[in-house]
Automatic annotation (TrEMBL):
It comes from the Bacteria. The chain crosses the membrane at residues 7-28, 34-54, 66-84, 154-171, 203-225, 231-251, 263-281, 352-370. Pfam families: MFS_1 (PF07690). The keyword Transmembrane helix applies. Gene3D superfamilies: MFS general substrate transporter like domains (1.20.1250.20). It comes from candidate division WS6 bacterium OLB20. Signal peptide: none annotated. The keyword Transmembrane helix applies. Keywords: Membrane, Transmembrane, Transmembrane helix. GO terms for molecular function: transmembrane transporter activity. The lineage of its organism: Bacteria, Candidatus Dojkabacteria. This is Major Facilitator Superfamily protein.
Amino acid sequence: MSVRDRFLLSKVFSLTYFWIAVSVPYLLYRGLSIDQALGVIAFYGILISILEYPTGVIGDYYGHRVSMIAGNLLYGISMLVMAMPGGIPVYVLASILLALGGSLISGSDEAFLKTISNDFKHDIARLSSLEDFVLMVVAVTGGILASFSMTLPVVLTGMFGFAAVAVLLTIQHDATVRDHKQHEGNIFTTARAGLRKVRHDRVLLGLIVSFSAFGAVAQAVKSLFGSFSDVFALPVEYIGVLVGAGMLLRALAKRNAARFDHVPDFMLLALMVAGLALAASGSIATAVLGLLVFNSFFGVIAIRSKVRIHDGVEDSIRASVLSFNSLVSRFVHSGVLSGMGFMIAASSFSQLMMYLSVLIAVASILFISVKIPTARRVTSVTGYPR
C-alpha cells in the first residue's frame, strides 16, 4: 500500500467518530442536565478554536506525521475517558483531550498530503469527498449503535483513533518519507512566520476570508434543514434524509471537481447565490432544491479554494496557515449560526435566505478578485519528496 493510501486509510479511521451522533444524548445518559451537556460541548468548541493555531505551529515545527500521531492518540484516549461514568470534571477532561487531539490533526493532515502527493488537486478532492462521505455514514450508524448501548459508539470511536495511530506508524518505515524538524530556529520563529505570512499577504487573507464565508453557510445547511420542522412543519424523520442527501451531493461534487475545470469561478459562484435565492421563494420544494444546489456547487468551489490556499503557502508554515484558516472558519461559522437563530426568530426563513445570498455574493466578489500564484518550492526545510 502506498504512503498516500495509508494516509487516507488513517483519515478514514480518525473520521469514524460515532460520538458525533450521540454526544448530547450520551451526556444526558451519564446524568448531566441539558444545560450542562451543552455547556461541555460549547467548552470543547471554544477550546479547539483556541488551540487551532498553536497546534498547527507544532505540526510545522516537529513534523506533520508526528502531529497526526499525537492527535489521534489523544483522540482515542479522550473517548476512553468519555466512556467512563462520572460527573462534569470527567467529561471536561475528556473534552480537553479531544480538543487537543483534533487540533493537532487539523492542518497537519492536509499539509502532509501536500508533501506526499504527485497530483494534489486530485488527492485533496479525494480526501475532502471522503471526509463528507464518512461523516454521513457514521452519523447514521452512530445512532444505530447507541440503540444497543450508549457507551458502544464512544468506545468504538476511541478504538478507531488508535487504529489511525497504528496506520500512521507504518509510514515511518517507508524509506521515501522522512519526518523531521522543519525549522532550524525555535518554535516561536515558526509561529511568527505563519502569522506574518497571513498578515502581509493580502491575497491569501482574502482567499481565507471568502472561503470561510462559503464554508460557514455550507456547514449551516444542516441546521437550516433542521429548522424545516418548525418553518415548514416537516416531520423529523425526513430531516435526516435531507441532511444525508446534502452531504452526499457535496461529497460527489468534491470527488468530481476536476470535471468542472472548464467552468469559470463566477458561474459556479452565481449558481451558489442563485440556489440560496431560490430557497427564499417560500415553498418547501424550492427551499430544498435551492439548498441542495448551493451545497453541491460549494463542493467544487471548496476544492478550488483549498488548492489555491496551498499554492500560496510555503511548506515550512503550511500547517500553521491551514490552522489559521480553520480558526477563521470556526469563528465565521459561529457568527453565521448565531445570526441565523436571531433572524429566524425575528423575521422569516425567506428573509434569512436572502441575507445569506447577499453574504455569499459579497464573498464571491472577494474570491474572484484574488488570485494566488503558485508558491516557490521550499526544498530546504522539508524531507518529503513529491
